[in-house]
Design goal:
Structural class: mainly alpha
Distance between the termini: 20 Å
Number of helices: 10
Number of domains: 1
Order of helices and strands: HHHHHEEEHHHHH
Strand content: 5-15%
Helix content: 55-70%
Radius of gyration: 18 Å
Number of strands: 3
Strand order of the largest sheet: 1-2-3
Length: 289
């Protein structure tokens, strides 16, 4: 397989955009990388999924470290949920290599619709005063022996406290997200973020930061299976990962300044449009040549 200079530049730009969006909303960028590789670059869907998993690892590494440094990531919550999602990722990776490409495309289209719905419904809990323990100088903190914490929201100019609830629900969704990540190479953040925000009462920015920390581990669990099956193409993965790493660093800077509601709406429109195209492609109807 050979790539022209223009195609390589296109892959880098694809990675940059996916990394920036993924870092801001905690979805890993796979929902952008996979359909773009299939629809625009005419890459086989299993190779696209493998490339996306590499991109998810790059996003998690670049963005996750920044969010941990800012105190937005809840490490206790991340490690608790990661136990379930890693097992799911391994299962999904084994199943995916035996599933027909048309079935994977149809599944991806359905998942895109679910993603858009969950992103539009996600809301932050109301801010509560956190005393003097957290502020602009101390960006975030976790509460000992509890899945709780607090952080300073620069966009709102307020300190927000939160307490994660309904852990069994989060664990179940995380396991399902791991399976889907292994199947479709999307990192699983599109389910984890809404699950934490809607079902566990975690603020969207904390949910995104925590998801960014988790998705890399999930992706690696599945990536080894795709690598062993020969679906990983270094010529595709390298420029995408390069762009994703740069985009993720930019996305972490923008996340503090952009309204979460506006970002979710814009991403939802993109997701819906791509999901429709993937469903049509699965049915043998191609709108994008």
């Amino acid at each position: 397989m050979t790539l022209t200079a223009l195609a390589t530049l296109g892959l880098i730009l694809l990675g940059f955009g996916a990394g920036a969006l993924g870092a801001m909303v905690g979805v890993g960028g796979g929902i952008i990388v996979v359909p773009t590789l299939v629809l625009v670059f005419h890459v086989g869907i299993k190779t696209a999924i493998a490339t996306s998993l590499v991109a998810v690892v790059a996003t998690s590494t670049a963005a996750g470290s920044v969010y941990v440094g800012r105190g937005l990531t809840n490490m206790r919550l991340a490690m608790t949920l990661e136990m379930f999602t890693t097992v799911g990722g391994i299962v999904g990776g084994f199943v995916a290599v035996w599933v027909a490409p048309s079935v994977l495309a149809a599944m991806f289209g359905v998942i895109m619709g679910v993603t858009a719905t969950l992103l539009l419904r996600a809301n932050d809990p109301l801010p509560r005063a956190a005393g003097s323990s957290v502020g602009p100088a101390v960006l975030g903190a976790e509460h000992p022996r509890r899945l709780a914490g607090s952080y300073y929201d620069a966009h709102a100019g307020e300190v927000i406290e939160y307490q994660a609830v309904r852990l069994p629900l989060g664990a179940a969704v995380s396991a399902a997200a791991g399976v889907i990540s292994g199947l479709l190479g999307v990192g699983g953040g599109f389910l984890k973020v809404p699950a934490m925000a809607l079902g566990m009462n975690v603020p969207i920015k904390v949910a995104a930061a925590t998801s960014n920390f988790m998705i890399g581990v999930t992706a690696i669990a599945s990536l080894f299976i795709y690598l062993e099956r020969g679906f990983v193409s270094p010529l595709l993965a390298a420029p995408v990962a390069l762009g994703v790493s740069a985009g993720a660093l930019v996305g972490t800077r923008l996340a503090a300044r952009v309204s979460g509601r506006l970002l979710r709406r814009v991403l939802s429109v993109i997701v819906i449009a791509v999901g429709i195209e993937m469903m049509l492609r699965a049915a043998g109807i191609t709108l994008v040549p």
